Amino acid sequence: MDLGIAGRWAVIGAASRGLGQGCARALAREGVNLVINSRSAEALEETARSLREINAGIAVRAVAGDIGDDAIRAAILEACPQVDILVTNNGGPPPGDFRDWTRDDWLQAVEANMLTPIELIKATVDAMAARGFGRVVNITSGAVKAPIDVLGLSNGARSGLTGFVAGLARQPQLASLNVTINNLLPGAFDTERLRGGLDAASKASGEDVARIREQRLAGIPARRFGSAEEFGEVCAFLCSQQAGYLTGQNILLDGGSYPGTF
Q1: What is the pTM of this model?
Q2: Which portions of this protein are annotated as coiled-coil regions (predicted)?
Q3: Which of 189, 195, 196, 161 minimizes the C-alpha distance to 254?
Q4: Which pLDDT does position 185 carry in this prediction?
Q5: pLDDT in tens, 168-213
Q6: Distance of alpha carbon 237 from its chain centroid, rounded?
Q7: Distance between CA atoms of 82 and 18, rounded to whole angstroms?
Q8: What is the DSSP string of 49-92?
Q9: pLDDT for 71-84, tens place per residue?
Q10: Which of 17, 59, 139, 204 could form a disulfide with 89 if both were Cys (CB 3.0 to 4.6 A apart)?
Q11: CA-based Rg of the chain, rounded to a whole angstrom?
């Protein structure tokens, strides 16, 4: 299927690896020009090179730094001639017990996973509406749908973003002008973050990491972890011309793990 977005410009956060990179690769295959960001300049440049190899006909610009920093966000937007597609993505806060978290811990989580995406959306959606096309995809977490007790910082901050988007996406001045805003909620994907979590659980429990992996897979009806590649393809569809009637939704990709009807 031709998604009808060749020649568009996209901004993608946390794109040097994992799910962000999966989204960048999928959009590159569709002929979308990219401005990518991550904290690691070296990893980001390597990703930029690989994206140019996927499609030599697109422009790929890399802006390294913490996307939560005002100056870095300004540099990202300056590097993009016009933002037609915005994929917000940022690393999640660490797990733990809420009794141990300070006010600063909460402020950092809200800044990274709620306010930073909102600032990027604020900076781009009105121009999207003026041009008659815009796609915003926020990569959040399956924990928004089914909260995980040790991920309270993430649960809180990302749920705040979800509530904000639910109202914003339905503003007629955006939705009627072909600007859609959706959230993409990953479950367990085979990324460095997941593998690191399995290793940490193994060290903490003394149990073999392969056993912990099998236990985790047993709770997923698909009996496998997702791939960044397939996550990126779903993201690309949400950014497509064909997805213009899909807005304000939380799309859960978790291999069937969530047990609810709604």
Answers
A1: 0.96
A2: none
A3: 189
A4: 98
A5: 999 999 999 999 999 999 999 999 888 888 888 888 888 888 999 9
A6: 14
A7: 25
A8: HHHHHH-TTS-EEEEES-TTSHHHHHHHHHH-S--SEEEE--PP
A9: 999 999 999 999 99
A10: 139
A11: 18
- Phi/psi for 35 (5° steps) reads -120, 115
The burial class, CB within 10 Å (0-12 / 13-18 / 19+), for 20 is buried
Phi, psi dihedral angles at 54 (to 5 degrees): -65, -40
Cα-based angle 174, 111, 195 (whole degrees, multiple of 5): 100
Task: Give the whole-angstrom CA distance, residue 239 versus residue 233.
Answer: 10
CA within 13 Å, CB half, 100: 7
Supply φ then ψ for residue 40, to 5 degrees. -90, 110
Specify the residue for token string 């806060």: 93
